[in-house]
Amino acid sequence: MLSQTVLAGVIYVWYSYASVNLGVSDFLILVVAPFVIMEFALGVLIGALASRPIKKIEAAIAYAYRNSKESRETIATIDNLLAAIRRLDAMRSASETPVTEHAFAQSLLDHLPVGIAAFNQQRELVYTNGAVPMHGGGKEINLDFKDNDSFNTWLDTVVEKNISAFHWWKRLPQSLVENEDQRHYYDCLAIYRQNGEAGIETVLVIVDRSDQYTTDEDELDFMALASHELRGPITVIRGYVDVLRTELGSSLTSDQLAFFERLDVSADRLNTYISNILNVSRYDRRHLQLILKEETIEKIYSTVSDDLELRARTQHRLLNVNFPKNLPTVAADRSSLTEVIVNLIDNAIKYSSEGGLIVVSAAAKGNSVEFTVQDNGIGIPSSLIGHIFDKFYRSHRSRENTVGTGLGLYIAKAIIESHGGTIQAKSVESHGSTFTFTLPTYASVADKLLASNNSNVTLIKPKEYIKTHSMYRG
Length: 474
What we know:
Strand content: 15-25%
Structural class: alpha+beta
Largest sheet: 5 strands, antiparallel
Order of helices and strands: HHHHHHEEEEHEEEHHEHHEEHEEHHEEHE
Mean pLDDT: 75
CATH topology of the largest domain: Heat Shock Protein 90
CATH class of the largest domain: Alpha Beta
Distance between the termini: 26 Å
Radius of gyration: 27 Å
Number of strands: 15
Shape: elongated
Oligomer: single chain
Helix content: 40-55%
């Protein structure tokens, strides 16, 4: 049973975090949920909940919140939880056959506003409460993990190196829904403890953030519509700029030529933003549908080389490009891939200091070709590097120093993964960043492309589902 010291400690942590306006869901994730599920596995929490009067729990929470500034929604959540506890307690008192402690604790967990899933040492899902999104007849957790940052991929890493660890996933959509308007988005926290009590080694805490994230999705739909309408006028403006420059010809001074160059750069950048937004709106649940052909990196780069050289020159940056002559061909959609290249190099230009060197290179790596963009600019803090490929993500420092939508790297990742490749970033703050993406060589995927009429569907990794083993709850 829980000692008075442990209970006092939980109340103290609650009060401490409440004083800095931490939300109830966040408190449940970081403090209560892992503690509850581990004790539930042992039966310790069961006895504690059964023995502690409900009124004392209510009084403790009320005391902890006496000076807090939580919103009405937060207080409502607490009231709902307390009401559920009262109902359960009344049911236990009124029943001729008392509700078992196990059933009481299970009912309590089902009333939590966050999902809780428990895994044994064999990574088998052995418990979920009522808030965990499920599909497949209740046999699989309905979450769409990223290809290279899945639940099992993370466990593969921590099991070998750590005694305990935790990991966040942000903005995970449901994998399958009948009605797209009812799609939910979740934040997930995984907590791992080697050789956990009662065989429970990993706990996954799932928080529904749909109210927050669907607002972004609705805004994106509007942005996509607006961007589509803007594309026509931008094309007309660029056309008139080209006509005006041609008509004036040799009569233009050097300053006037520089003015036209800046117009070109600005128009191209605006067009890139529009392309990014339209691509996000077409993003098909993690992958774009592409037709891949045999291409060379050098030829793909040549289609945008003049524009990138111009951008670098007008921003007073040095661009060094080096591609070996014997690089193998790759399977690529030229238009999409040029967008990635432009985005990475444009970022390097924006985040480098005046006179900074940007090195663009490529190399063969087994059955892949590796493309690298390296700069010596402001770099990315280690605390932020894991989020730079997230949709709409822009750090506070980026928002202060440069303009942008926060979609470029998200789309770059989508395009590269839709080619069957990978993309990653390494950085040291104040010393620059290196972005690298890989593409499969054409020879290594030619048979798959032939079988699918050059579609990329055969190169896309299947989605990973977390399946149940034997559930505690029916």
